[in-house]
Write a structure and sequence with these properties.
The protein is an alpha/beta fold and 369 residues long. It is built from 11 helices and 13 strands. Strand 11, helix 7 and strand 12 form a beta-alpha-beta unit.
């Protein structure tokens, strides 16, 4: 199927999508959380031409022993990557089931300032009851309650990003004024379980609003910029993308590629001896690089992009870099990000006007009538 060029995202949490991926990693387990490794993976992905990196996160360890279960916070890792890259977008996964939206807003706005407009946010939820005591909060029980927390949290975060107008910071030495107080606004949000007055403590992000990604069954479509859609085959992905209700959709794809040392099937079987690779209802490509190129070509026109989840980063990322992305770029089935542009621009999204500035402009127009 023909269509616009795809944007390519890569999930880089841990050693790969398989819980036992560390067993085939090119480093010892104690190097998993080192800055050098994070920087190396981010640089490889940026040089390869990926548009976006995502970093999974949660309050609880990502697995169980005997697998490696260590993790550093996604926002902290994203900030480090932002300072060590120049083109690629960075989107940490931040659940809102228990996190304070005010603090999430500040962290993500700061990330957008650090990256000069390359930040995004993958909204998720904490489903395991054990997460509640980690946060010191009562259990949010049930899908409906978690969806409420996500819905209210995204609404608050977006409102806080707009609580400073773009020109609120004036830095006037002559008058000793740093801010224009008339361009800073209260949020005054009251939800079912909490209230937030605001305003934010961080100026409006360079993008105005960060790119918000998430599953449309977890977050209302009107709150998302990009829907992450799933399906075990192209027909299911097509149906999910059509029903998403967002202007941009990314397909979730788990990937295991043939390498010079072993076939994809052999690599998967090797890891399956230790831990099963759970079926999350996503497209899964286990095979050749050429087969993945063909699959991604079929997804053009179905979705606007894909997020790849490699089986083992140290083994699959070099194959993606050498045998997949160059063919996609050559055939114009995908595009590289352009230096000096924001993540919103890379994804074809407009920079939104500040809601308060728009209200003020409307009031001024009404007064002239």
């Amino acid at each position: 199927m023909s269509g616009p060029a795809l944007r390519l995202a890569l999930e880089i949490d841990g050693d790969g999508a398989h819980p036992a991926a560390w067993r085939r990693a090119a480093h010892s387990p104690d190097h998993l959380l080192t800055p050098r490794r994070v920087a190396r993976i981010a640089a490889a992905a940026e040089n390869a031409g990926f548009t976006l990196l995502t970093l999974e996160d949660g309050a609880l360890p990502p697995g169980v022993t005997p697998d490696v279960v260590g993790r550093i916070g996604a926002v902290e890792r994203a900030a480090f990557i932002a300072a060590s890259t120049s083109v690629i977008g960075i989107a940490p996964v931040v659940p809102l089931t228990y996190a304070e939206p005010f603090h999430v807003s500040s962290q993500l706005a700061s990330l957008d300032h650090i990256s000069v407009g390359r930040a995004g946010w993958v909204v998720s939820e904490e489903t395991r009851p054990e997460a509640a005591p980690v946060w010191g909060r009562p259990l949010v029980d049930g899908a409906a309650a978690r969806a409420r927390e996500s819905r209210d949290g995204v609404e608050v975060v977006r409102a806080l990003w707009d609580s400073w107008e773009d020109d609120a910071v004036i830095r006037s030495v002559a008058t000793s004024r740093y801010l224009d107080r008339d361009r800073i606004h209260y949020v005054d949000f009251t939800g079912d379980t909490y209230a937030v007055k605001g305003p934010a403590i961080v100026p409006r992000p360079p993008q105005g609003q960060l790119v918000v990604l998430g599953r449309p069954d977890l977050v209302p479509a009107e709150q998302l910029d990009v829907a992450l859609v799933e399906g075990r085959n192209i027909a299911a992905v097509t149906s999910a993308a059509a029903a998403a209700g967002t202007s941009r959709t990314f397909a979730e794809i788990e990937v295991a590629l043939d390498t010079a040392e072993a076939t994809a099937d052999q690599r998967v079987a090797d890891l399956e001896r230790h831990t099963p690779w759970s079926d999350r209802g996503r497209l899964r490509h286990i095979g050749s690089a050429a087969g993945l190129v063909a699959l991604l070509g079929e997804l053009r026109g179905v979705v606007n992009g894909v997020r790849l989840h490699p089986l083992v980063l140290d083994e699959d990322l070099p194959e993606l870099t050498r045998l997949v992305l160059p063919h996609l770029f050559e055939r114009r089935h995908a595009v590289r990000p352009l230096p000096g542009t924001s993540l919103r621009t890379q994804l074809g999204l407009e920079r939104p006007a500040n809601r308060h500035a728009a209200d003020a402009a409307f009031e001024a127009l009404e007064e002239t009538r």
